[in-house]
Amino acid sequence: MIIWEATNGAYITRENLVANLTSLEVSHDGFWAFVGSDQGVLWIFNVSNWSMPKLIKIEKYSNFAITVLKESPKELKEIKNFGSLILRQMSLNVSLLYLLQLEMWLGYSSVLI
User: What are phi and psi of 9, to 5 degrees?
Assistant: First the structure.
């Protein structure tokens, strides 16, 4: 994973992840990055300092690619003081959806929906 400055395209840093990345979502406040892979792995990074991303959690959901990551609306996070993340995995005949409750963005629980 390579991070560039969006305004001028300047290289910032690189994180070596052993997988083909298939999805990315950044939190509304820009402090958290969620990265999915073709092997069903989710990485959660604290990117409050983009030049030094800090890996918070690695979780493998199945052998299917994570094709969609989507954070809950900002308004929901402000009301409930936590957010959620939709994670979708797909293969030829199977589509799995998970709802991850991100409590204070540090710990989370997941439910297959």
Answer: 75, 10
Q: Give the span between the Cα atoms of 37 and 83, in whole angstroms.
A: 22
- The Cα 46–Cα 37 span in angstroms is 18
Neighbours of 66 (CB within 10 A): 27
* Closest residue by Cα to residue 13 from 25, 21, 5: 5
Q: How far is CA 71 from CA 16, 46, 84, 113, in A?
A: 24, 15, 6, 16
Q: Which tokens sit at 64?
A: 């299917």
Amino acid at the residue 92? L
pTM of the model: 0.73
pLDDT tens, residue by residue, 51-106:
888 988 888 887 888 888 887 665 545 444 455 677 777 766 666 666 666 554 44
Comparing C-alpha atoms, which of 31, 32, 28, 29 is closest to residue 42? 32
